[in-house]
Amino acid sequence: MRESTQERFNSCLDESGYEFRGFAGDEGDAVVIEDPGYQEALSRCSAESGIADLRSGFAESRGNRTPDQIRADNEVILDVVACLRRKGMDLDNPVQDETGALDLRSSLRSSDVDPRESQQAQDCISEMRLRRQQND
Asked: Domain limits of the chain?
């Protein structure tokens, strides 16, 4: 379901003449904040595709994690960072959010690593997902 939701979301943005550049509140490209047309398309496509519900559910599930779950997730994130560094990427250290969880996305973004365009990043993140599934 998530794949089709993502495809619907990206297709909607494409039809609106935009490529996904981030959500409001994310660090990154100024177009997210400064382009009202992008903001309108992002809001409409998020609602129409169901991606807004997925983001909300994800944020809620992250907020409900136990300290042990956060610790396990942090260990996996540190493994991904180590994997990327072994592959030659110069990555910033991940920072913790208000729950103590490490934020891999910010670390990737601040280091100009786009996992959608880097096979090395995709490989390391796939390893992370497998470990998470094994931990659940």
From this structure: 2-62, 65-135
